[in-house]
Structure formats: C-alpha cells, structure tokens
C-alpha cells in the first residue's frame, strides 16, 4: 500500500512505473508514453547471489511480458500496455564481473535456448514417407581440423594480462602450467602466457570464433602453438 496515493501494489515493477509517471506528470510530461527499455533476471549466479535460477528468470521475464502487454496497466495508469525490452537476448559470456552478469540471456552465446518465455516455435511434425531406396554409400570419416586461439602479434601487453586474469579466473580452467615452475612458464612473457590462457578458454567453451575474440586481441589459428613439453590442448 502506497501511503501517498492509497493505491495497493502487488509487484515492484508497477510501483517503479507509477513512480516514473508521477515524476513526469509533476514536470508537465504526464502525457508522454513510458517505455521499459531494459529489464531482466539472471539465470545463474555466484553462491552468494540470492534469487538467481533458470526458473526464476523464466517466470520473471514471461510474466513481465504477459503483464505489460495485457492492457491491465498499473494502479496509477490502468488499461494501458507498455513496450518492454527484455535484457537480454543472449548471454554475454565474455563480460567481466559476477557470474550473474554473464547470464541474463534468453539464449546461450552458442544460440541454444536457456529457457523459453513463449517465443520459441514448436517443431513441425512431418509424416514419414514409406519408400524403398537403395542406401548410398556413406562418406568416409571427416578429417578433424584442430584449431587454437592465440594473441595477435600487435596486441597490447596490458590487455593481454587482462585476458590472462579473465581466462584463468573462470571455473574449470587450470592455469597452473603458466605459473612459476609450471611446464609452460618459460619463456616468461605476457604474450606466451596469454596464448596458453586464451587457448584454454577457447577450447573449454567449444572453439567458437567469438570465444577467441578477447576484445579483438585474439585470433584462431590451425598452427599448433605447442613447444617442447608445453602442449596446447
């Protein structure tokens, strides 16, 4: 219950919309439509981040779309619909910060859905056709082309150090080989250490080209950068 207006609110989104409308009306812009430019909910987060899950993200975004487009409006603006943009379409898997910052998307970075808020089309059902066809001989096994991610030669060392810190800070990535005493520590150079760390991240995330971008400082190569006992897997 709002003490000033006496209106009852069942959710914070309506309260925020009405607060913005009240401020705009006081300034003489009460007839200007309100657009929700960005709202969303993370589907994953750190252990200490409360209320982050796929179910909560799906429920929030699905109900937000349904509520703002229903025509019900808000307590102060009844019978209205609002244009809303959900943040975000894709997870931002290279974004720094807590895990939640990289998990606001409806889709993963590889374009597979995180969850459905009602926008995914149902697959079409095609009736099988019964016919006798002599099977053609199948192709031989495709050659596997190995790929690695390495820094561009002109990449700034400060940026490469940031790449190392980012890649080695990801869960499941072991950078002990480029720490003092590690098998890939020598030669002790930012370029060499960055190559190992960036490639580990690239390989761990499915070898997508965007996983080797690193702010346009990485490049995908088919030349194995391994040397001596230091193996780039």
Automatic annotation (TrEMBL):
It comes from Arundo donax (Giant reed). Belongs to the glycosyl hydrolase 17 family. GO terms for molecular function: hydrolase activity, hydrolyzing O-glycosyl compounds. It holds the Pfam family X8. The keyword Protease does not apply. Residues 147-232 form the X8 domain. PANTHER family: GLUCAN ENDO-1,3-BETA-GLUCOSIDASE BG1-RELATED-RELATED (PTHR32227). This is X8 domain-containing protein. GO terms for biological process: carbohydrate metabolic process. Keywords: Disulfide bond, Glycosidase, Hydrolase, Signal.
């Amino acid at each position: 219950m709002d003490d000033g207006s006496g209106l009852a609110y069942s959710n914070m989104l309506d309260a925020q919309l009405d607060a913005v409308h009240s401020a705009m009306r006081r300034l003489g812009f009460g007839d200007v439509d309100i657009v929700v430019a960005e709202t969303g909910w993370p589907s994953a987060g750190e252990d200490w981040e409360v209320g982050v899950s796929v179910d909560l993200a799906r429920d929030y975004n699905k109900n937000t779309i349904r509520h703002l487009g229903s025509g019900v409006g808000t307590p102060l603006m009844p019978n209205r619909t609002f244009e809303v943009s959900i943040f975000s379409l894709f997870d931002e898997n290279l974004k720094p910060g807590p895990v939640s910052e990289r998990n606001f998307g409806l889709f993963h970075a590889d374009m597979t859905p995180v969850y459905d808020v009602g926008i995914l089309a149902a697959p079409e059902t095609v009736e099988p056709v019964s016919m006798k066809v002599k099977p053609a001989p199948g192709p031989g096994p495709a050659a596997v082309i190995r790929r690695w991610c390495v820094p561009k030669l002109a990449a700034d060392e400060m940026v490469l150090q940031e790449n190392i810190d980012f890649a080695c800070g990801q869960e499941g990535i072991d950078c002990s080989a480029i720490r003092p005493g590690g098998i890939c520590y020598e030669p002790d150079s930012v370029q060499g250490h960055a190559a190992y760390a960036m490639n580990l991240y690239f390989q761990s995330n499915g070898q997508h080209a965007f996983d080797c971008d690193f702010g346009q400082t990485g490049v995908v190569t088919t030349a194995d950068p391994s040397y001596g006992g230091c193996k780039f897997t």
